[in-house]
Amino acid sequence: MAVRQVLQMGDPRLLETASPVATLDTPELHELVKDLIDTMEALDGAGLAAPQIGVGLRVVVFELDNNPRYPNVPPVPRTLLVNPVLEPLSEEVNEDWEGCLSVTGLRGVVPRYTHVRYSGFDLAGNSIVREVSGFHARVVQHECDHLDGILYPQRMLDMKQFGFSDVLAATGNTGVMPCDT
Ligand code: NI
């Protein structure tokens, strides 16, 4: 198990565009994916992108288990995507709270497409194609943004809806995202 250090906002590596993975199923790629999953689990995150641990490759993982505290958030199966491609399925956008393991302690309201199709590859080179909506769609958009050097505050429209998660919770803000990605 290798829990890696997660880069924090301000580190210029988080603003770089990641490169496509050229060859699947290599020992290096397996090791990277294991580190991503180990790190995501150790920090109780819902997702993690390779650039967040300082690796400039287009690889993301995400997962959300059933959480009794947030019964309205449907679970997202653990998914590894190599070279993901996103496509909105409609112009519909919704706003909701997000957090990020690279923006520790903060939450902000971010607009995202409600319905998207995403595709990519697993470690063995099998194609993955899914059409998703809601929280699942939000997490994928957040993770894929990391591959293009975009952190969620750059997507925010109203900086009044940005704050420390513990303060937001203590002052009665409901619906704040359950986890960081
Ligand atoms: Ni993030």
Could you characterize the architecture of this molecule?
The structure is a single chain. By secondary structure, the chain is of the alpha+beta class. It has a single domain (12-180), classed as Peptide Deformylase. 20% of the residues lie in helices and 32% in strands. It is built from 3 helices and 8 strands. The strands form 2 sheets. Strands 1-2-3-6-7 form a 5-stranded antiparallel sheet, sandwiched between helices. The chain has a 3-stranded antiparallel sheet with strand order 4-5-8. It starts with 26 loop residues before the first helix and ends in an 11-residue tail after the last helix. The site of nickel (II) ion has 6 residues, from helix 2.
Features:
globular; Peptide Deformylase; 181 residues; five-stranded antiparallel beta sheet; three-stranded antiparallel beta sheet; 32% strand; 20% helix
Q: Output the CATH homologous superfamily.
A: Peptide deformylase
What is the CATH C level class, in words? Answer: Alpha Beta
Radius of gyration over all CA atoms, rounded: 16 Å
| Contiguous runs where pLDDT drops below 50 for at least 5 residues | none
Q: Kindly state the mean pLDDT as a whole number?
A: 92
Strand content: 25-35%
Hetero ligands:
nickel (II) ion
Q: Write the CATH architecture name.
A: Alpha-Beta Complex
Overall structural domain count? 1
CATH topology: Peptide Deformylase
How does the helix and strand content classify structurally?
alpha+beta
Tell me about the biggest sheet? 5 strands, antiparallel
Strand order of the largest sheet: 1-2-3-6-7
Shape: globular
Distance between the termini: 20 Å
Helix count, DSSP H or I runs of 4 or more residues: 3
Fraction of residues in H or I helices: 10-25%
What is the tally of beta strands? Answer: 8
Order of helices and strands: HEEEEEEEHEH
